[in-house]
Design a protein that fits this description.
Radius of gyration: 17 Å
Bound molecules: magnesium ion
Strand content: under 5%
Order of helices and strands: HHHH
Structural class: mainly alpha
CATH topology: Helix Hairpins
Largest sheet: none
CATH superfamily: MazG-like
Helix content: over 70%
Shape: flat
Distance between the termini: 37 Å
Number of strands: 0
CATH architecture: Orthogonal Bundle
């Protein structure tokens, strides 16, 4: 079991305990995911383009961390509801990209 499997199971339990499964349709979860990506983008929207992460103050870092969590939660929940293993999908995609874009000699 991976960390992602643990997270998916915890989210499944969380939703079931609140009778939220009926709200967790793929469409609803994708819209929620999209909203959270927007919230993550909004945290960095007006920073200078070259602002490095180490220049973030602790409050901004915490807000970005919170939004990363929201994005991951909705992505993992969406994949779980759709029966997709996101880690296997990512590994498959990386393998595809490794053959599509060979390393420099
Ligand atoms: Mg959020």
């Amino acid at each position: 079991m991976t960390g992602v499997d643990d997270l998916a199971g915890r989210l499944r339990t969380f939703a079931a305990a609140r009778d939220w499964e009926r709200h967790h349709t793929p469409k609803n979860l994708l819209l929620a995911l999209s909203g959270e990506v927007g919230e993550l983008c909004a945290e960095l929207q007006w920073l200078p383009t070259d602002a490095a992460s180490e220049n973030w103050g602790p409050e901004l870092r915490q807000r970005v961390t919170d939004e990363v969590a929201d994005v991951l939660i909705y992505l993992v929940r969406f994949a779980d509801v759709c029966g997709i293993d996101p880690v296997a999908a990512a590994e498959q995609k990386i393998e595809h990209n490794e053959s599509r874009f060979p390393p420099l000699p």
